[in-house]
Amino acid sequence: MKSECKKEWFFDRFCGTQIAVYTEDRKIVEVGVESDRDGDLLGNIYKAKVMNVIPGMRAAFVNCGMERNCYLPLDEGPVQLHSYDGAAGPRERTIPREGDEILVQVTKLPRGNKGAKVTCDLSIVGKTLIYLPNTDFLGISRKITDPASRDALLKEADKLRERGEGFIVRTAAETATKHQIKTESEYLKRVYRSVLATAEKAPVGTAVYHEWSLPVKVMRDSLGGVEGIYVGDRELYDKIVFLARMNKAVGEKKVILHTGKRSMLVEYGLSEQVYEISKTHVRLKNGGYIVIDTTEAMTVIDINTGGYTGDADLEETVFRTNLLAAEEIARQVRLRNIGGIVAVDFIDMTEEDHRLAVNEELKARLEGDKSKCTVLPMSELCVTLFTRKRTNNELRSFMLQPCPHCTREGYVLSDIYMAMRIRSEIVDCFGRGCDSVIIELNFDLMNKIFSERYFSKDAEGDWRGKRVYLIGHHTYHEERYSVRGETSRVLTLPDTARLLF
């Protein structure tokens, strides 16, 4: 009998960014990243102004204070309803006019040249309920399968709503008491009332409601089964301990503050796994590999046998490689948080049974994904299309930025991710007893580190009394750098060396 895998969360905070890593047997399954300054736009509610209405598209474009106007569909129902079982009451939708000031909520993040997608059907998410203040809908999670529990929970939620309101019962409600559900419903309604009060006085473009920060969302939605929660930042640790006390499925005792001399992600062997996510090639267990390319319209995945020649005929070799690829593809789309349309070009198989088996394997592997996935049948060309609901930014948008050397058609590692890698090596140097660290790096990256104050929190804390020197080079590629530690009190440095803060 196969033993259950060891599930753990790792939280850290550095360079003005929070990171959450979920692992199974120390293999990364999910990564979440969020800026301390901007947070995550998804789920935020804005006071917006309608800039123009386009009847032919049944859409409007609204100013939410972002770089680009947001897209507002006018004939689309609440986007979250299709993910739950339930029934909606009659709908009366008022078509906004140019100049109207309205409240909208972000349902899809901006991408490329496209602005964010928003809706007027607002929702406030809790642990057991989702409150729909202006949508007459009563729904329940499909993961609650017991008919008696479903019926009882729906009746309880129905008693908690007023005319024109709605609730969606989340999976966590199955283990909650009636009092807990009622208390949360009252809290969610108070949150909405505060949103309305803030919006009355706020100027257009103001975020009148912010979705919870990354650690709060993780702890809110956690249903237990996690053996350990490791935290590399003291302030973040205090916050997560507070949240764990309120979540009996997690528990305070499982939260551990990392106090080692090395960076936490390095210490637990996760740093290089995160780095691998930035690469387009992913090796399979048998020596084959997949290639992941992202375009404006979709993500395209190609499968190759690589060095695997098999020990049977060609058809069997291809079939086994495609099965392994289906498993890895399901892992990679979740790991990289790939959303939208995904086209998978499997290696050609001649037998229909093999094509069906590979498609079913892909479906089965994607069923464990928290984001909704819809898989279409494989074509005769052995191409499978599937869609995955986009929940927040793809990890590549954090790790990569357009390359300045190839008309911005390629990508290099982003400034913030490069700063994180450099910081990790600085921590290692100080952990080995060095008093000073000298970094040679790209000149523009050095300026970005100073202007964004990426290391300010470290310099004011654990690095107090230490010396960090940065030497910028105009000839260095964006990804080239070196970090060395020194124990000598006397250093020989060029005039261009800059002392960190």
Question: Summarize this, please?
Answer:
By secondary structure, the chain is of the alpha+beta class. The chain has helices at 147-159, 178-201, 214-221, 234-246, 264-267, 271-276, 314-335, 352-366, 395-399, 415-431, 443-451, 456-460; strands at residues 7-14, 17-24, 27-35, 45-54, 59-63, 70-73, 85-88, 101-108, 117-119, 124-125, 129-132, 137-140, 166-169, 207-209, 228-231, 255-257, 281-283, 289-294, 298-304, 340-345, 373-375, 383-388, 400-402, 411-413, 436-442, 467-473, 481-486, 498-499. The chain has 4 domains: 7-38 and 214-272, ATPase, nucleotide binding domain (Nucleotidyltransferase, domain 5, 2-Layer Sandwich); 45-209, no CATH class; 279-388; 403-499, Ribonuclease E, catalytic domain (Hypothetical Protein Ychn, Chain: A).
Explain what this protein looks like in three dimensions.
The protein is of the alpha+beta class. Helix content is 28%, strand content 28%. The chain has helices at residues 147-159, 178-201, 214-221, 234-246, 264-267, 271-276, 314-335, 352-366, 395-399, 415-431, 443-451, 456-460, and strands spanning 7-14, 17-24, 27-35, 45-54, 59-63, 70-73, 85-88, 101-108, 117-119, 124-125, 129-132, 137-140, 166-169, 207-209, 228-231, 255-257, 281-283, 289-294, 298-304, 340-345, 373-375, 383-388, 400-402, 411-413, 436-442, 467-473, 481-486, 498-499. The strands form six sheets. Strands 4, 5, 6, 8, 9 and 14 form a six-stranded antiparallel sheet that branches. A six-stranded mixed sheet has the order 17-18-19-20-22-21, with helices on one face. A hairpin with a 3-residue loop joins strand 10 and strand 11.
